[in-house]
Amino acid sequence: YRAALQRDPRHVRGLVCLGNLLYALRRPADALGFLAAAAGLAPDSAAVHGFLGNCLRDLVRADEAIASYRR
Description:
Layout: H1 2-7, H2 12-24, H3 28-41, H4 46-58, H5 62-70
């Protein structure tokens, strides 16, 4: 995923996949930037906002998680 992002840092799928991989490795703080970037590039994607919400929830940022889930 990092190679894809080096070629195109705005590659939404690469951002989401790397964010989800880091999240699955129990590294939500590392995943957050990638998922937030993906949400900024794909503001209408319910899936991306769901992933971001899960990450924010695990970081105990409940208000932000709720806002992300609602998008």
